[in-house]
Amino acid sequence: MSLPPGFLDELRTRTSIAQVVGRKVTWDMRKSNQGKGDWWAPCPFHQEKSASFHVDDRKGYYYCFGCHAKGDAVSFVRETENVSFMEAIEILAREAGMVMPARDPVASQRADRRSELVGVMEEAVKYYRLQLSTQAGAVARDYIARRRLTPETQARFELGFAPDVRQGLFQALTAKGIAPDLIVEAGLCARPEDGGAPYDRFRGRIIFPIRDGRGRAISLGGRAMDPNARAKYLNGPETPLFDKGRNLYNLGPAREACGKGARLVVAEGYMDVIALAQAGFGGAVAPLGTAVTEDQLRLMWRIHDEPVIALDGDAAGMRAALRVIDLALPLLEAGKGLRFAILPGGQDPDELIKAEGAEAMERVLAGARPMVDLLWTRETEGRNFDSPERKAALDKSLRAAIRRIADPSIRAHYGEEIKRLREDLFGTRGSRRGAREGGFAPRDGFAGGFTGGFSKGFGRERPPAQPLPTTRSTLLVAGDERVAEHLRESMVLGILAVHPELIAEFESQLERVVLTHPDRERLRAVMLAAAHVAPAEIAARLAAEAGADLENLLGLPHLRTAPPILKREDGALARLCLAEELAKLATERAVRAEVEEAMEDLEGLADEGLTWRLAQATTARERAKQSKLDDTSDMGEDRAALSAQLKAMIDGEIWRKRKN
């Protein structure tokens, strides 16, 4: 089977030889330089202990200084997997997500055709460069001079000019014996709808040759000299040579500069890249008339681990940055990220460099912000979070964005950073501290339960055992009315500890609930910090950071026998029980707050005599209820009379003061 060169080029672009080789060797990290794609390891082809096997990830080749084995990713797979050339291609293509071309007997003819198209493009570049120096190119030379591009820069980027004539290029190329079909297929000319002779696609424009990573001319870009032109910038169409979504302007020189330590700067257009390169920023590239694509982003990461997206500081530039964020989130990997340099005053790189020099551009690039900052800005800028509903909406959108990150480690770190920013915005840390200081604090920590009952021996009942000192001090013995709330708090944390997958779902409720003991606070802090990582990692963090507190919590008697704790595999039951406990906890505290507020109001209206009578009536009612429960006495008609008296007092609203 014959493969088209374009397929192999694309395969090499998508394949990292370091990743291919890394499956078979152990890298010597002391000798390797990951940032430059320079890797060293013991050779997999002969027995050795020293790291003499070298991989250049940027060039895509390996070489062993011991046994002199050398080659690319294809040859490495062939040698290590003992497969044929085509089988190695199929293995790499499958890993790169590429479909193998059909076994076409005319594939070699297509390869020849592609080579011919490259030759046509090179002839077009020569023609346009020559036209820039003619009298017709005077207007273009004046424009280039105003943009302060030096002759060296013009030669480096091979700038040219397309005269404003209908068939200038077409006639020049056909005069050299190039077939019209080749000229049209290369995207240099177009056929009119009436079927007439082809006409030049680029007319009255400065020409920017576009080359691939191997330096071959694959297309052209043009900048109109006429301010009234329909398109200020025009790119060549999709051709067998040119796929605009899989290439970058200035790719080859930028890759070489980044290999020498330069940062990769992604600008918006041709002139920005040229201005950056002339100012000393050799690692500058730009997309080709489209928004950044997934293939372009992966290509950037092949060149540099952390490209800087340098976008204009206007609204369009910000929209472009946000589109890149949405594209990059699912693709993030450890060590592969993005930073964003937003230029001041709506300027582009060319304008900033001309106005303030390369030093100003360097300051902007050095202050580039990580992607999480722009994600946070996008969700919060210009919005008011003065209600629980708006805060919940923010939480929902941020959670949805973070869930798009496939790498669990990166997702966890994004969650932690977003949580920090959220706490700074809402002052959550301070409110929690205030709740702890102003809330109810249990005596002696409310740790443990109680034992009671009686035992029998020799046919008669033994006297009940005296409670231990530790038992006397618990809230259960003290009869504190808030004991149930403490039990519910421990149940909530216990369910989340056993079912950590529920933490993210109930995160906002867990964050707001007021806990009444430092042990519970520590557990909650660990849970919230790990809300967006894998459940297994949450369990590991709890064990590592709050092991003693967790052990004490799960050792409580009412937790050891609770169904959602015992049935660890029943997530639905745990979810229902957790929601119920949180709802009851919130309800009980709300009711108590209302009662306390009502009592305060009542004290301000009633006199002391009425307060005493109501207190006596309440005491009698409680005594009657207890008598009924114990079934040891019966108040009979006295109880009924007391109830009637109390009802009459309430119906008469006797707490209201009467005017004399």
TrEMBL record:
Give the catalysed reaction(s), semicolon-separated: ssDNA + n NTP = ssDNA/pppN(pN)n-1 hybrid + (n-1) diphosphate
Q: Cite the EC number.
A: 2.7.7.101
Q: Which GO terms describe its molecular function?
A: DNA binding; DNA-directed RNA polymerase activity; zinc ion binding
In residue numbers, where are the CHC2-type zinc fingers? 43-67
GO BP annotations, alphabetical order? DNA replication, synthesis of primer
GO CC terms of this entry: cytoplasm; DNA-directed RNA polymerase complex; primosome complex
Q: Residue ranges of the Toprim domain?
A: 262-344
The Swiss-Prot or TrEMBL record lists the needed cofactor(s) as: Zn(2+)
Cofactor binding notes: Binds 1 zinc ion per monomer.
Query: Per UniProt, which keywords does this protein have?
Result: DNA replication, DNA-binding, DNA-directed RNA polymerase, Magnesium, Metal-binding, Nucleotidyltransferase, Primosome, Transcription, Transferase, Zinc, Zinc-finger
Could you tell me which Gene3D superfamilies the record lists for this protein? 3.40.1360.10, DNA primase, catalytic core, N-terminal domain, Zinc finger, CHC2-type domain
Identify the InterPro entries for this entry. DNA_primase_core_N_sf, DNA_primase_DnaG, DNA_primase_Znf_CHC2, DnaG_bac, DNAG_N, DnaG_primase, TOPRIM_DnaG_bac, TOPRIM_dom
> Quick one: where's region Disordered?
452-471
Q: Which NCBIfam families match?
A: dnaG
Q: Into which family does the record put it?
A: Belongs to the DnaG primase family.
Function summary: RNA polymerase that catalyzes the synthesis of short RNA molecules used as primers for DNA polymerase during DNA replication.
Quaternary structure, per UniProt, is:
Monomer. Interacts with DnaB.
* Notes concerning its domains: Contains an N-terminal zinc-binding domain, a central core domain that contains the primase activity, and a C-terminal DnaB-binding domain.
- How is this protein named in the record? DNA primase
- What organism is the protein native to? Rhodobacter xanthinilyticus
For this protein's source organism, the top of the classification is: Bacteria, Pseudomonadati, Pseudomonadota, Alphaproteobacteria, Rhodobacterales
